[in-house]
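Batch 3, record 17
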Amino acid sequence: DQQVKQNSPSLSVQEGRISILNCDYTNSMFDYFLWYKKYPAEGPTFLISISSIKDKNEDGRFTVFLNKSAKHLSLHIVPSQPGDSAVYFCAASAYNTDKLIFGTGTRLQVFP
Amino acid sequence: DAMVIQNPRYQVTQFGKPVTLSCSQTLNHNVMYWYQQKSSQAPKLLFHYYDKDFNNEADTPDNFQSRRPNTSFCFLDIRSPGLGDAAMYLCATSRGRDTAYEQYFGPGTRLTVT
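Prediction for the assembled complex:
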């Protein structure tokens, strides 16, 4: 049972345009959501997060939107840069647990 | 720089031959995690330690064991690797239960079983 779903395995975007990566979840107990970025031959690195009490969190070029009623979150990258090319994982956690539940990832390619 | 280190980066073992993967951290974090990630799949939590408190996931096979001799080190032992255990194994840390959300990952060990 995949509680966190990233239905797009890949996304290709032109440099300078917006990249939108989507994530859906099924567990209504999740209250904290994160995006991780992974380059080849490296471990995932934390990118940005959002608590369920918010619907938007912004950090520079990265913005995460949360729609609790739809159990959906998205990561917006604008403007996209070639260095953003990586695999992006969505992850979720329920209150007072030690664990993150990850999605399968979306491979983003930003081309010139 | 504070970091999570995994050795070796690549490990080849034979079917049924025990293998140990290691993880060390200089972050002084209380929690350490082991994940298994197969190609195009989500990282799957195997178990984690909160200090010395071991927490096994219900669906982690008995073939997988872990040791945490001190704060800095954690080991993953696969007692009798099968072909299906070939995967990337990721170690991660976090400061504590209230900050478990933000986990810091090592580069992973890619295990091949021949």
